[in-house]
Every structure is written in structure tokens, then in C-alpha cells.
Amino acid sequence: MRIDILTVVPELLESPLNHSILQRAKDKGLVEIHVHNIRDWSEDKHKRVDDYAFSKGAGMVMSIAPIDKAITELKSQREYDEVIFLTPDARQFVQRDANQLSLKKNLIMLCGHYKGIDQRVRDHLVTLEISIGDYVLTGGELAAAIVTDAIVRLIPGVLSDETSALTDSFQDGLLTPPVYTRPADYNGWKVPEVLLSGNDKLVDDWKQEQAYQRTKAIRPDLLDK
Ligand code: 6GU
Fold first, then answer.
1. Which of 87, 109, 134, when mutated, tests ligand 1's pocket best, judged by the most ligand atoms within 8 Å of its CB?
2. So what's the pLDDT on residue 78?
3. Quick one: pLDDT at residue 204?
4. Where would I find the beta strands (DSSP E) of the chain?
5. Could you identify the atom of ligand 1 that is nearest to the CA of residue 134?
6. Residue 159 located in a structural domain
7. CATH number at residue 32
């Protein structure tokens, strides 16, 4: 998979995409992530990428020209499955979206900034709009990092079998059961007896029940689905 991220603050994406599992996925050649500065396509002498809104009091708006040039250049090099716009005024990204996007070959992610973006970008260049939740961030960069992480970890070979994505919270509609490691007794705080029993059937039943009880207590909405 290849992901091209278009932003006016590329620095914000450096650290989150260059460590741990994402870095290993890149090293293994399972994913290529390219971060581009939209300013590189600005023809303005001050490299501006925004301008005043036509409506009064609406603040600054990201201009269409540099974004169109960037996307057109990328599209001339390969075919893209989606041009994704990260913005709070969109449908919320959920695990099902991550699953579907993890099967794609080439993705463009466009990070919103300032007060908004010229609507013609959304109407003519963007194919998918996503928000990561009902709160407002200063820009789409952290959201792009989150969406990239959620997608990349699902690519076959990125996670080891032990940490398989199939056992994640949400994949089966339930939160995960609690986990423990040694010592079995830490200053009187004990690991549940059943986990020390060596009886796989009992352990599986316990995990299933814990997953259900946690979901009922914390995210009852998931049980309605
Ligand atoms: Cl994708 N962008 C911004 N700026 N804020 C958000 C968001 C995205 N998702 C939730 N809040």
C-alpha cells in the first residue's frame, strides 16, 4: 500500500508515522507513506495556500489551486483508490472503514486547516470525507495519523499472529477482556484464579463473559448493533 498525505504542517506527521509498528511496516516494504507540503505547489510568491472567504467573517479558506496541482501530479504517477479529506464535518471513521481501506492500494489523504477549504475541492477532487470524532482539532494532521495507523496495522504481515487484528476490540463487536502478566500476586493484588487453572475451556468462557460484561458496562451501544 502507498499513502500520500497532503498537509501544510508536514512536521506534525513526522513522529507518529516513524516509530514502532508503522516504522516496521515501512521497513518490511508493506507500506510506503509520503508526506507532502501543499506549499510546494503554491505559485504565490509568499507560498500562500489560503485566501479570504468570499462571504464576510468566514476567515481564511484553503485555496483550490495548490491542492488541485498536488493531486493532479500524484494522479499522473499512479491510480488512486480514494482521495480522503480529513475534516470534523464528515461521517465518523469506524473500524469497518479501516478494514475496507486496508484492502486498497493507493490512497491520498488531504488534511484540512484554517476555517475550511474551498468547497470545489470537496465537490470535484475528494472521493471520501472522514472525521475521527465529535470534537474539533486544529487541523486534520493528527486525524490522518490516526486513520493511517488504524489502516496500516490491518495489512497482512504488519502485526504478528499474537497481536492479530482479529482479536481487537470492535472486530467482534465487543471490548477486549482484561489481560495480566507475572507476578500472579503483586503485594496482594491477585490475578483471577481461572487464568492460572490451565483449563483452556474455562479460560475461554471467562474471557467471553468478561468481554460481554465490560461492553455492557462501558459501551452498551455496541450491544444494540
Ligand atoms: Cl478529521 N479534522 C479536524 N480538524 N478536527 C477533527 C477531525 C478532523 N475529526 C474530528 N475532529
1. 87
2. 98
3. 95
4. 2-7, 32-37, 50-52, 60-62, 82-86, 106-111, 116-117, 128-130, 185-186, 189-190
5. 10
6. no
7. 3.40.1280.10
Contact 87 CB / ligand 1 (< 6 Å): yes
- Give the span between the Cα atoms of 10 and 4, in whole angstroms: 12
Instruction: Judge whether 113 and 85 are in contact, CB under 8 Å.
Output: no
152 lines ligand 1 (CB under 6 A): no
Ligand 1 centre distance from Cα of residue 137 (Å): 5
Q: Is 201 a member of any domain?
A: yes
| 160 within domain boundaries | no
Give the pairing of strands 50-52 and 60-62: antiparallel
Supply the pLDDT for residue 163: 63
Three-state DSSP class for 6? strand
Sheet containing 60-62: give its strands across.
50-52, 60-62, 116-117
* Residue 162 resides in a domain: no
Q: How far apart are CA 62 and CA 71, in angstroms?
A: 14
- CB proximity list for 31: less than 8 A, separation 6 or greater: 1, 2, 3, 22, 25, 152, 155, 158
Give the integer Cα–Cα distance in Å for 112 and 143: 10
Residues 138 and 219: their CA atoms lie apart, in Å, by 28
Assess whether 187 and 89 both reside in one domain: no
Buried residues in 115-127 as b, exposed as e (16+ CB within 10 A): ebbbeebbeebbe
Within this chain, do residues 86 and 184 fall inside the same structural domain, yes or no? Answer: no
Residues 185 and 128 in one domain: no
- Are 128 and 178 in a shared domain? no
Low-confidence ranges of the chain (pLDDT < 50): none
